[in-house]
Amino acid sequence: MLAFEKALEMGCTGIETDIQRTKDGVLVLIHDEYVNRTTDGVGLVCDYTYKELKKLDAGKFKDKRYKNIKIPTLKEFLSYVKDKNIKINLEIKNSIIPYKGIEKEILFEILNTKVEDNIIVSSFNHNSMIELKTMYPKIKIAALCEYIVSDLEKYKIDKFEYIHPNYIFADKKEILKCHNKKMGVNLYTINDEKNMEKFIKYKIEGIITNCPDKLKEVIDKKKF
């Protein structure tokens, strides 16, 4: 939660985060399927109960100043952002571990918090996104992928509201193709100023970055 608070202090207009599920069905925000890299624990998130997960330290790996930071729940996060007027990109991490039924559970939390208008739900599991859209047609979905054109054709995802490709494989022509299909383009993960400026000029809808302060400087400086 400290990271989300800091992001808003830095001027972010949106937050991207990742959803896994505990052994006892609690939706939590952590990028990796394993807890090893970002906590003092070992093993898969899905093998921990929420009570067990809360015992892990998710801050001191970064710096001893952040000792005792805990992995947040989706419910906790949505409660925090519901009055913030920012875009929220929830990535379901269900392409490696399928987390059966997680779409319905996430949708419940979104609708219960009444933040659906500000939400984009994304995943590399495109069938999962289609299932979510079937449940609630008003929800905005995004297809995470590496390439734009080949993936549009291969996975038939041109009916999604957004596509989230790796910026390394994106170019102006392919972005235009998405725009012609009325699809928004949010690129990941751009951390250098040169590429930030380049893709902003291509009229993409959003940049996912680890350096929001740098992106804000680019936007303010260039006055796009």
Task: Walk me through this protein's architecture.
With 224 residues, this protein is α/β, with parallel strands linked by helices. The chain has a domain at 146-224. Helices cover 35% and strands 17% of the residues. The protein has 9 helices and 8 strands. The protein has helices spanning 2-9, 50-53, 74-81, 102-113, 126-135, 149-155, 172-180, 193-201, 212-222, and strands at residues 14-21, 27-29, 87-92, 119-123, 140-145, 162-165, 184-187, 206-207. Strands 2-1-3-4-5-6-7-8 form an 8-stranded mixed β-sheet. Helix 8 links the parallel strand 7 (184-187) and strand 8 (206-207). Helix 3 (74-81) runs parallel beside helix 4. The longest helix is centred in the middle third of the chain and has 12 residues, at 102-113. It is globular, with a radius of gyration of 18 Å.
Strand content: 15-25%
Rg (CA only): 18 Å
Query: What's the total number of strands?
Result: 8
Q: Tell me, what's the shape? A: globular
Query: Which structural class fits the helix and strand makeup?
Result: alpha/beta
Which range best describes the helical content: under 10%, 10-25%, 25-40%, 40-55%, 55-70% or over 70%? 25-40%
On the 0 to 100 scale, the average pLDDT is: 94
Number of helices: 9
Poorly predicted regions: none
